[in-house]
Amino acid sequence: QRVVLMDPSEDPDDILRANRSREKTFVFDVVFDHRATQEEVYASTTKSLIGGVISGYNATIFAYGPTGAGKTYTMLGTDCEPGIYVRALDDLFKALEATTEEMDYRVSMSYLEIYNEVIRDLLNPSSGFLDLREDPSGSIQIAGITEVSTTNAQEVMQLLMKGNKQRTQEPTAANKTSSRSHAVLQVTVMHKSQRKAIGEEVRIGKLFMVDLAGSERAAQTQNRGKRMKEGAHINRSLLALGNCINALSEKGGSWAQFVNFRDSKLTRLLKDSLGGNSRTVMIAHISPASTSFEESRMTLIYAYRAKNIKTQVK
User: Fold this and answer.
1) pTM of the entire structure?
2) Is 196 exposed, middle or buried (0-12, 13-18, 19+ CB in 10 A)?
3) Binding residues for ATP
4) Greater confidence, 45 or 153?
5) Residues marked as binding?
6) Which domains does the chain possess?
């Protein structure tokens, strides 16, 4: 459960800085090394949330970390090593098939990206930029997003692969296929009892799976011009997310501190998933290379703060 981060530039014989060592230990719920398989990562992070989604809780999975550390691989995976998206939906459909006796259910999903603070539909890219709206009950909706109803994980995989090709990817010095946007897969499960009772209860559970764009330092990615602007937007929305996480993890709960969800589209969309009625998992990715020591350090501090968020799930 521990990550020990050693500073590569530290000199063990330097007497003056002996007690200013930047070696840090972070404790998490689970830590994986490079030998971990997709199945192991999925089983210990996401598998336990699926049952909750079916019974009407929300769940969110984040992939966070510097550019090139493997977020898209964890979430989407490859054809022979599928990632969390596909495994989670597979389990979801299996669990729903087991409960079909007296329940009607509907599963709908949408896949979108947030690029330079605008929202694009990845399943229907020609629809242009979409707006975020709040409906009367206070939940955030995206006007005009394509929702696909399906009960087949294979179908979903094809849609996701197609959607992922529409994602804004550009090569940078740090990563040949760097994702320049945050991708959000939103799966809504609606449950209804078949027996027509008078006070019929409908349970709605939402599952968000978010593949964030890599946090990046322009010095490392050697970005100029347009790429540099994108990087600034990426870092801005990650900073907004970080501010929300900080405010939520402060002692005294969410009433003591104002949480500014309106700073970026990403945090507005994930408002319920961060501070609201939701179980949240953050999978932080770091690179073992000594050149990315700073990024690894910031990522671990960020993820460690996220661990302190306490929400009341109803």
Assistant:
1) 0.82
2) exposed
3) 65-72
4) 45
5) 65-72
6) 48-287 (3.40.850.10)
